[in-house]
Amino acid sequence: MVTAEISPDLLDKVSARFPALKREKQLDWHIFIVDRDDLLALGVFLKSEADLDFAFLTNLTGVDYLDYMEVVYHLYSYARQHKLCLKVRVTRDDPVIDSVTGIWTTADWHEREAYDLFGIVFKGHANLKRIFCTDDFPGHPFRRDWELHNDEEYLLRDVKTSEEYGMPDELPS
Length: 173
Prior knowledge:
By secondary structure, the protein is α/β, with parallel strands linked by helices. The chain has a single domain, classed as Beta Polymerase, domain 2. Helix content is about 20%, strand content about 25%. The strands form two sheets. It has a five-stranded mixed β-sheet with strand order 1-2-5-4-3. A hairpin with a 4-residue loop joins strand 4 and strand 5. The longest helix has 12 residues. The protein is globular. It starts with 7 loop residues before the first helix and ends in a 50-residue tail after the last strand.
């Protein structure tokens, strides 16, 4: 997949249409910080404008910064061969955001994963249910306030000794 950097003119076009967006650049990604109320309109614009043509959502994930959480969207245009990142902040008390499955169908499983692991609720998702954890799991394991603990019942134990693997019991210092 060849990727060209999105042109400054196109970034300016997006900013002109959505003046509340904040712009950043990290490594080779141009990033727009989006208010959650503008997400759907921005998504439709990015996909439908011929010179932008962001027809593919390559990834969507949640990030927990303890003070707030973010939903991160990585978009790609096969026709134009450029990419863009969107970040939407949500609060820990109200981790609700509109689903983008109506714009990019690939968001379906990604949103379910972010819901399951971070507790981010995607309003309007047709099948928002857990994807990794059991339905009765009492929390969201990727949230930074989730207490980590080991359940001895599920720990894997190796039945072979280090010597059987050809390794010393202790590594030389």
